[in-house]
Specification:
Blueprint: H1 2-36, E1 40-49, H2 56-76, E2 78-79, E3 85-94, H3 99-111, E4 117-119, H4 123-136, E5 139-141, E6 155-156, H5 162-177, E7 180-186, H6 191-194, H7 197-207, E8 209-216, H8 223-235, E9 240-243, H9 247-259, E10 265-268, H10 277-281, E11 289-293, H11 306-316, H12 326-342, H13 347-362, E12 366-367, E13 377-378, E14 389-395, E15 401-408, H14 415-422
Parallel strand pairs: 1-3, 1-4, 4-5, 5-6, 7-8, 7-9, 9-10, 10-11
Antiparallel strand pairs: 2-3, 11-14, 12-13, 14-15
Length: 423
Amino acid sequence: MARSNALYIGLAAIVVIIVAAAALFFMGRGSEETAGEEEVITINVGLLVDETGPTSDVGIGYARGAEAAFKYFNEKGIYTKDGVRVEINYIKRDYAYNPTQAEEFYREFRDRYNVIAVIGWGTADTEKLSDQVARDKIVYISASYSAKLVVKPYNFFPAPDYSTQACAGLAWLREEYGGGKIALAYDSKVAYSRSPIPAIKEASKILGLEVVGDFDLPLRASEADAERVAREIKAAGADFVWCGNTISSCSLLARALAKVGADVVMLVNVWGFDERSPDLVGEEAYGMVAGISPFIYPVFASGIEGFNVIYEAAELAGIPREEVTLRFVQGFVNVWLLVKAIESVTSEDLLSRGGEALKEILESQTFDFGGITAAPVKFQPGFHVPYKDVYIVMLAEDGSLVLEGKYSAPKGIDCARVTIERG
């Protein structure tokens, strides 16, 4: 019996030695691999989108571009100033354009995931959160280009604000067509649609354009809504129309204006006109609609270096090149701006100071996107209007999209400040 116990004890000892040796072997192997590999840190970033709500007509493409950018840069490798690789874990939430839901998701991003940045979406929710993100020191790069955000310390976007964009569009109208009467069609209940209206009215005075009225066009307009507004605009004797909604209702209005025989040129904000417009507005409206964009359209991408990055990212995500749209570009560039900021900080700063470190970089450097934006992006501390140029794209009479060129807001007026003070 004693001999058997001794045998068992001996065997057990041998097993323990083998297990311990194996553990030491594998632990040593892991340490060697770690020593030979690059250092990697992970940060969390929130992604707030509208894929099911009233702005999903443009929100789906934006979200697709943002996600493709996250995946591409993670795969390619994001490196801090001191050479440490950064993996971005993005947490996506569809808030369906509901500001209350956006606030709830923001709290989740902050409290559960400890994000250092958010890639955001709409105007009402972004404006509402702007003071909170400043207190939390979380960088917020939105798809809202509201002028009210440019004085908020942690809010950024790689484009002129809506008011500056609109004023540049008016400068094009004045140069191309001379003076005349302009009607303003937008959803008066939606913060994004209302945003540039004070600046448009002020700039119109300088440019010799007479505003003949504000016409309430629902964001989710029906054909009947659009035709009602079109008849009112025609009766007002307008020569030009500003449409401040997204692409669905602006396209319906263009159709309706053509249907009622209104002899007008319609100028559309960045979210209301894109590659789909020739199909959406219909042939009767060809030659009478133009869109504003701070970003070059993919259809004009030849020779634009930045599109090499975007097309490479799309291919990695399994997205055909023909599906790379203006909306895809907008989402992609917002994430790209964040990546460029990360690449300019040290890993220690990124981990210890997070959004505060990113804010300092965003306010101290110039960011170039290979010709995609109408000008290089440069944020001044306290006033985040990165540039004041836009592209104007005309829907020609043959149904093609024609790049009219770059235009800037008229001198003698700061359109962003007009909206901040009077909006």
